[in-house]
Amino acid sequence: MAEPVIEDVVGRYLHVASSGEQHRVYFEEAGSGPPLLALHTAGSDSRQFRHLLADDEVTSRHRVVAFDLPWHGRSLPPDRWWEREYLLTTDRYVAIVEDVSDALGLERPIVLGCSMAGSLVMELARRSPDRWGGVIGLSGGLHVEGRFADWSLWPDLNAQQVVASWTASLMSPHSPEASRREVWWTYSQGGPGVYRGDTYFYSEDLDLRETAGTIDTARCPVVLLTGEYDHACTPDDTAAAIAAIPGARGGTMAGIGHFPMAENYPLFRTHLLPVLEELRGWRDDHGSMRQP
Amino acid sequence: MISRAWLDEWAAAVARDAENAHIGRFTDVTVRVVDDNGGDVVLHYDHGRVRVEDAPEAEHRAFDADLVLRGPVSAWAELVDPAPAPRRHDLLSLTKAADGIEVVRGREHLLRHLRVLTRLVEIGRSHG
Predict the structure, then answer these.
(1) Torsional sign, CA A177, A183, A185, A188
(2) What is the CATH number of the domain that holds B76?
C-alpha cells in the first residue's frame, strides 16, 4: 500500500479591504524566496496552479502564492452580493491584486497570470512598474474580442456544464486527458454569471491598444506566452501585444492551449523555468524591494 | 461528406460509450449536417443514442433540425481528424475558422447541448 502523501502547500484566509469593500480571500502558498504571485483565469480559481505549487524546482527558489479572486473558489463574494450584477472592471481587478500583494507583504513579486490575468499583468506593469519584479502573461492580449456573452445566464441553459465545455475547447487535444478533464471540472464549479463577469474585463473593459507602448519594460520586464491551440487569445493576438510593448518578449508554446499551467504542466514548465530564472536575475540586479 | 457507413459505425460507437451514456441521458436534439458536395443528413440524438437519416428534401421538410451546421467536406474531415491543426481542433474552433463550419441555425442548441456534442465529436475522432 502506498504511503500517504501530504503536500507542502498551505491554504489560509486573508481579510483585506479593496475598492471600498471587505473581502475574505483564500490563498495557497508554498516555498520560500522571491515571491511569485499566480493569478487564475476567468471563472476559475487557484486550483489551476496546484502543479506549480508542488513543483520543487520552483518552490525551492520562490515563495509561490496563488489566491482566489473574490466570487471565485473559496473566496466568497462581498456583502450584499445578491443585489448586484457581477462585472469585473480593470480598476477593481488591479486594486485587488495590489491589495492582496501588499497585505501578504510580497516585495516586488514576479506576477504570473493566465487568460484575463495574462492581459491584466500588462496593465499592472503599465500602472505601477516598480511594484513588480516582472510579469509573465499567458494567453493574454491587448484586447481579446468575443469572450463576453450573456448565454451563461440563460435560464434554459445549464451553465455549470456549458461554461466548462465552452472553455475546454480552448485546450490542446494533445494535453493529458486527466488534466483537461480537471480544468473542465473546476470550471463547472463557478458561480452564476462569474465567468461572464470576468470576461467583461477580458473582452470589454480592458483595452491596451492605445497604451501598451507606454509600458516601461526597463522597470518591469514583460514576457508573454500563448499556446498554439488557443483560439480565444490567439498566438497572433499575443504577438501583437509583444510588438506593441517595447522590450517585451515571448512567443508561442507548441502543443499547448489556453490553460498552460493546468492543462499540461510538464510541458509548460519547460517554458516557465527559464523565464523565472531570467526574471530572478533581473530582480536581483534591479532591487528586490518595492521602489518608492 | 463523411460516408454513411462511417456515420453508422460512429452511431454504434456512441451507443457503446460509457461517458455518453450518463451525460446524454436527458438530451434530445436533432442536428442537420450539410456539406458542399451534396451531403445532407440529420442526426437524431435521443437520450444517449444517435439515429442517422438522410435529410428530407426542402419541400418535404415540415420543420428543420434544432441545430443546422454547414461546411465544406474538408472541414468535416478536420472535425474528426485525430491529429487536428491548432485552432481547427474541435467544433467551436472550426466555427471560428476560415473554411470551417457555419452554424446556420440553432446556436442556442449548440450551446445548450455543448457537453454532449463535444463528446460525440470525441467519439468520432477516436473512431477514426
Answers:
(1) negative
(2) 3.30.1050.10
Residue-wise pLDDT for B39-90, tens only, equals 999 999 999 999 999 887 766 676 789 999 999 999 999 999 999 999 999 9
Q: Does domain A10-286 have CATH number 3.40.50.300?
A: no
CB contact under 8 A, B96 and A234: no
Q: Could you report the per-residue pLDDT of A134-173, keeping only the tens digit for each?
A: 999 999 999 998 899 999 999 999 999 999 999 999 999 9
Nearest chain A residue to B118 by CA: give it.
A165
CB contact under 8 A, B111 and A162: yes
Contact B22/A at CB under 8 A: no
Q: Is B51 on the interface with A (CB under 8 A)?
A: no
Question: How far is residue A201's CA from residue A117's CA, in Å, rounded to a whole number?
Answer: 10
Cell numbers linked to A183? 480544468
| Of B89, B96, B114, Cβ closest to residue A166 | B114
3-state secondary structure A39-98: ECCCCCCHHHHHHHHCCHHHHCCCEEEEECCCCCCCCCCCCCHHHCCCCCCHHHHHHHHH
Q: Which amino acid is at B10?
A: W
Instruction: Give this prediction's pTM.
Output: 0.96
Cβ of B84 under 8 Å from any chain A Cβ? yes
User: Alpha-carbon distance A148 to A43, whole Å?
Assistant: 12
Structural domain total, chain B = 1
- Residues sharing a CB contact under 8 Å with residue A237, sequence separation 6 or more, in sequence order: A141, A142, A144, A226
Q: Supply the range of the domain harboring residue B113.
A: 4-127
Chain A residues lying within 8 Å of B86, measured CB to CB: 172, 228-229
